Amino acid sequence: MEAQREKRHSCGTICLKYLLLLFNIIFWLAGGAVLAVGVWTLVEKSDYISLLNSSFYSASAYILIAAGVIVIVTGIIGCCATLKEMKSLLIVYLCLLLCIFLLEIIAGVLAYITYQECFPFCYQLDDQLTQNLKVTMQQKYQQPGEESVTQAVDKLQQEFKCCGSHNSSDWIDSVWIQGNERLVPDSCCKTPSDLCGRRDHPSNIYKVEGGCIMKLEEFILSQLYILGAVGIGIAFLQLVGMMFTCCLYQNLKEDPY
Fold first, then answer.
1. pLDDT single digits (tens) 28-44
2. From residue 41, how far is each of 57, 143, 183, 212 by CA, in Å?
3. CA 29, CA 33: separation in Å to the nearest integer?
4. Alpha-helical regions (H) of the chain
5. pTM > 0.70
């Protein structure tokens, strides 16, 4: 009778070990995905987001990177604790899961609340940021020593299919445009080519699609929503891991070390 109980106990422990290992694999993949999104954001998007002179977007990207790294490290600790059947390490793993769970729930809820409060009443970014983008375009575009700004503006207008900060007329007061035969930069054109900016007809440039600031607002708000959803989603995934960890802890024999 005792042997049967011991056998069932061993089978239960082995089953829990495999479930926890499977959870950690999924946890690793989730952490890797979050890390990849953060790195992609900094590499692909930070150049034109920097035109707004705001730390919000870059901060959200760094949060994603930090969360991804922490999740991956925690997953490694969880695998070690599971394979070695060390109760002390399982407690550390459980505490880390609990801390990350609480932080992600708080971050996700705050992001969601901010999104709800911001939309639609603050659908436009702060006036100072909006004005900063306009001034940057007018004063620094195609100016000596401002190659990074020029490249960022061109990429912004082509990727978001927009022209100017509010609209294409913003370029009228541009330092570069005033001494140039173009009416708008060539990057405003629907099919960019050399000197295509000499015509500002809607068939040639992004004139009726709206300014770039509106496109940026939509993009940033969508990223904020995704940030909150990812945080809450991973947090609830951790509930499963904490449940498996508690069950395995109860099933393991006392660690002799």
1. 887 888 788 778 777 77
2. 9, 27, 32, 18
3. 6
4. 2-40, 46-49, 56-84, 87-118, 127-140, 147-159, 175-178, 212-251
5. no
